Every structure is written in C-alpha cells, then in structure tokens.
Amino acid sequence: MVQIFLDESGNTGEDLMNKDQPVFVIASLILDETACAELKEKFFRNVQARELKHSRLSRNLNRQKMVLEYVDYLSKNHHLVKLNVAHKKFVLVTRAVDILVETAAHQDGFDIYEKGFNLALCHIDFYTMPVIAGEQFFLAFLERFQSMIRLRTVQEYNSFHSLVFKEHTDKDLSEILDWFRAGLAVCGPNVIRTLPENSLDLAIPMALKNMAQCRASVSGKIHLIHDKSSAMSKEAVIWDKLMDPELTPTEIGYDRRRASFPIAVEQTSFEASQDRAGIQLADILAGATARYAGWISKGEPETDEYGKRLWVVMQDIPVDPIWPYPQFTPEELGTTGPNAADPIEFLARIIHETPKH
Questions:
Q1: Closest CA to 292 of 312, 317, 318
Q2: pLDDT, tens digit (0-9, with 9 covering 90-100), for 156-208
Q3: Domain boundaries in the chain?
Q4: Tens digit of pLDDT for each residue in 47-90?
Q5: Which of 4, 43, 73, 264 has fewest C-beta within 10 Å?
Q6: Cα dihedral angle (32, 38, 42, 43), rounded to 10 degrees?
Q7: CA triple 263-268-271, angle to 5 deg
C-alpha cells in the first residue's frame, strides 16, 4: 500500500480576509515513513526537537538554511510532491461569482463555466474593481460578502446588498456590479439560507484536488496519513465517503479542471504529528510554500529575504494554484476543452447521503 502524508498551512477556516495568512496550502508527500525518517535525519539532524514545525524552523537563519536545502531536494524530485495553493482574496471573488453570478446566468440558460468564462470574469473583477472603485471599496466588497456567507443574518445580507446596489457614476464599475446585482435579484435573502455549511472553507475541497492528483500518478492502494489536529479530521466521515473506492466511476469538472472518481483512498489515518516524520516533513513543505506564496501575494517585498530564497529553490515544483493572473482568455487559461459532470452537484449528493456524526 502506498503511503501519502498530507498537511496544510494557512488554514483560517471561513476567514479568507486574514491579513497575516493571505494564502492556504495543501502539501502531500508520496513517500513511506521509513523514507521520510531518512530525509528528516539527512536535513534536520541538528534539530533537537522531536517534532519539526516550519513555524519554528523559520525563525532561525541556520534552520531556514535546512529548510531551503530540504525543499531544494524536493524540487529535484518533484514527482514525490503535490502542492495546491490558494490566494484567499481571489477565492472570495470566485465564490461570489459561483454563488451569485452563476445562479442568475443559469436561470437565463447561460453556462458560465463553458470555456472558463467564470474564471475570466473572476480575473477581470479581481484586477479591475480595485482600480476603478478603489482598494477600499474592493476590500469592503470582499469583507461584506464574506460576512454575509459566514454569519447568514439579514443584517449582513442587507449590508452587502446596499454596497452592491449603491449608484456609481463610473460606467465600467456599474457593469461589473450588474453581474452581482442580477445574482442578488434572483437569489434574494435565500442566498444565506440555502448554502451548505462552511461554504468558504478550503480544507476539504483543496485536499480533494490534491488526492485526485496523487491518484493520477499512483497505482494501487493508498494509505493517506494526516495530522489529527487538523480541521479536516473533524470531517472524517465526509472525507471517507468522498474517498470510497466503491463510488460510481464519474468524471467531473470543466475543460482542464477535471477529476476522476473514485479517487479510491483505501485508508485515511489522522495521527499525531510528533509520531510521524512524514507529517512533519509535509508540514515543513506546506509552511515553506505558504511563506513564498505569501511573499508573492504581498508584492515580493525585499525585506523578506527568506520568502525570496524559497521562491528561487521551489520554482521547479509544480503547483496547482487558485491564483489571479492578468491573462484570462480561454486559450491562456487552458479552458477550451469539453465539460464533464457538474462537480458541485456530484459532491453535494455524496455529502447529502453521508450520515451526520
């Protein structure tokens, strides 16, 4: 059975506006515990602590060097690694488009996922709204949307509604907001009543993508090992259902953004990090990735020398990002292929059929 160790960094639940942790990372290592113990000894033998954590290693220049040597090794053996990175503010834009714009477009018979139109719209909104309306308006848009989805009160709905429907003299801004106005007009307050719980939480969706990518490169049975202190461990019943080898074979997603089920993880264990070298090494990889991705999201500040050096040594490791890019035509996004089954409907059905624990 193939062992895969998985860990995360930057998990702030549904708070995607957290200033200190602007990105979320899922990292997995396709290595067994024996090989991980050997890597731990090779790169971190001079660290006395039984449990390695990137948050602690990153505070010391000598230990930063150890981390850099470790991730440089992984960059030369990147077949062992799967990384998923999310820019949290951009995720909020994508969720606003998914929840509001898609609903209105669907009612009019228009599939916004066709050829990646939804992604193009998200990129346009992310880059143009701060320029046209100002950074303060853009942040207020994200904050009020997040509060509406998290708190689900009429007061938060009205707060977001009033911001979106406020009259603006700028024609371009009004055209951007019209997409969201249409969604609010169609959904009304039901938008805060019908969404599933934790609709903004990234942990399970991104871990799901990560394991789908692992499955594409691994044959045979998989034993996934994750830190028992993680938020995902609280959703173990749902996770096991999503990993069920007996799920009906189904292709879900759009164009290049597709995944095949069943992912078929035979066993998932949530274990103590201090007892597993593999979890510790996954933690270091996730934390290092979050640091360099955060460095990029903050405008690549010269004051963060460690973030810059991580970026240099990790460039060869493939990353699956949810990240804003200035290129957003279907050709540039690689979204010109055919669609498969609707992933939201497929996953919602599985979760709905899963008994509460």
A1: 312
A2: 999 999 999 998 888 889 999 999 999 999 989 988 888 888 889 999 999 99
A3: 2-87+201-352, 89-192
A4: 988 899 999 999 999 999 999 999 999 999 999 999 999 999 99
A5: 73
A6: 40
A7: 150
